[in-house]
Q: What sequence folds into this?
């Protein structure tokens, strides 16, 4: 069964460094998302992406964040200058369209630790 | 106001018994989708079950069923015949459709522990 994949599974970085988190959504899905989950807290929406542009973003998704679909399969989240509070699990998700097809399927996550 | 409320931070259930995990939601949008996800200790988010606001019947997926009470704005997850592998965090989530938003709003989760 097709699934969303994410790399790396874990990333440790120094404060102020740039990180790129990578995702391969399910191949016939049209919508792509990033969420994050700070340890012990609820899952929070960051951004959604459709037709090669951002369709929605939360207040968390500030100028330090950007997303890109550089080719037909990858979907990336870049954090330009990481802060300690960016430490979290980052989930990529993808979905089709509406009705039951709006279900968002999540990848296994990238655990980011900023030191 | 919380959009998704899960009032049970932790639940215990005996193996092979049924358990109900509560979820209430708050929206003025007449069109929405409700979802349950399972998060084992390994961290991934696993989709379990979906209910659309206009669905006439309660959703079922194997041992999972959703007790959808629209007037009460509740969408409780029922797990029948609990197994040790069901021990995990369970999150209820909602997508409000009419605004065109696709973001899921999650509850704070319920940690379920299945005891042998």
A:
């Amino acid at each position: 069964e097709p699934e969303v994949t994410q790399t790396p599974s874990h990333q440790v970085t120094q404060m102020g460094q740039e990180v790129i988190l990578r995702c391969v959504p399910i191949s016939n899905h049209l919508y792509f998302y990033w969420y994050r989950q700070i340890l012990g807290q609820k899952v929070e929406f960051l951004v959604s992406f459709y037709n090669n542009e951002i369709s929605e973003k939360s207040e968390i998704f500030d100028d330090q964040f950007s997303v890109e679909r550089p080719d037909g399969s990858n979907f990336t989240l870049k954090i330009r200058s990481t802060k300690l509070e960016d430490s979290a699990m980052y989930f990529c998700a993808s979905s089709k369209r509406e009705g039951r097809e709006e279900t968002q399927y999540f990848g296994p996550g990238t655990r980011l630790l900023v030191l | 106001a919380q959009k998704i409320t899960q009032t049970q931070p932790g639940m215990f259930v005996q193996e092979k018994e049924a358990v109900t995990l509560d979820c209430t939601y708050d929206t003025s949008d007449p069109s929405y989708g409700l979802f349950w996800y399972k998060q084992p200790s390994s961290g991934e988010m696993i989709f379990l079950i979906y209910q659309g606001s206009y669905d006439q019947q309660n959703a079922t997926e194997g041992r999972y069923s959703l007790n959808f009470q629209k007037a009460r704005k509740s969408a409780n997850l029922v797990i029948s015949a609990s197994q040790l592998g069901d021990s995990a965090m369970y999150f209820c989530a909602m997508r409000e459709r009419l605004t065109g938003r696709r973001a899921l709003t999650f509850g704070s989760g319920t940690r379920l522990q299945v005891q042998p």
Summary: Chain A is about 0% helix and 50% strand.
